[in-house]
Amino acid sequence: MSKVYTNAKHALDGLLFDGMTIMSGGFGLCGIPEHCIRYLKEHGVKGITWIANNCGVDDFGSGILLHSHQIKKMVASYVGENKTFEKQFLEGVLEVEFNPQGTLAERIRAGGSGIPAFYTKTGAGTVIAKGKEERDFNGTTYVMETALHADVAIVKAWKGDTTGNLIYRKTARNFNPIMAMAGKVTVAEVEELVEPGQLNANDIHTPGIFVQRIFKGDHFEKRIEFLTTKDNPTGKK
Known about the structure:
Elements: H1 8-12, E1 21-24, H2 34-43, E2 48-51, H3 63-67, E3 71-76, H4 83-90, E4 95-98, H5 101-113, E5 117-120, E6 134-137, E7 140-146, E8 150-161, E9 166-167, H6 176-182, E10 183-194, E11 213-216
Parallel strand pairs: 1-2, 1-8, 2-3, 3-4, 8-10, 10-11
Antiparallel strand pairs: 5-7, 6-7, 8-9
Helix pairs in contact: 5-6
C-alpha cells in the first residue's frame, strides 16, 4: 500500500479525534510540520494533549492551536515566547506538564524504543520529582521518568522517499527523529519527495518503517522567531 498522500488533509484523514495525544516535531519554529498544524486548526479537533519542545509563537506554529483552544494539555520544556500560553496557563485553562529538555527528549526516545521508564539525576530532589519514584544508585538519588507515546506524531523533514525514509537538514532535525519513532501513526511532511534509491542510505535519519504516511508540502514559511543581525562596520554588502 502506498504511503504517499497529496497533502496534510489527505494524510491526516481518519486519524484525528477529540482528546487525542499528538507529538509535533520542531524546536521553536525550526523544523515544525507547518502544513499538518494548519490543517489541525482547520479540522477543529479539540482536547489535544500536545507533546512538543514548546508551543511556537502566538500567530504561527502550534501557537495557533492554543489560540483556538484546541490544546487541553501541554507537555513541553520551554514555553517562553507565547503570550497566549501564559494567559491560558495563569487562568487555569491549560494544563501544563513541564519537563527538563533532556528528560523530555529521553521520554520520547524511550517511548519509541519500547522502554517503559528510566532513571535520571535531572530533577531529583526538586519539584520536578514530586509524586515520582526516587531511587539511590551508588549513593546518588535518581528520579524515575516514564516514556511518552502519541496517537499521531507529525514531523517535518527536508527530503523523503515514497517508502518513508527521511533526511532532516541541520538544526531542523531536533525532536523529529525520536517523535517519528514514538507515534502509533507517524505523518511526515517533506520539502522534497523522491523515489526509493535516490537517497543515500548513509544519510537517512529516520527509516521508513517508522513512517506510515508522507506528503510533499507546497510551501514552507520557515519563520524566524527573532531575527538578529550584526552591524557591518565596512558598509559593504
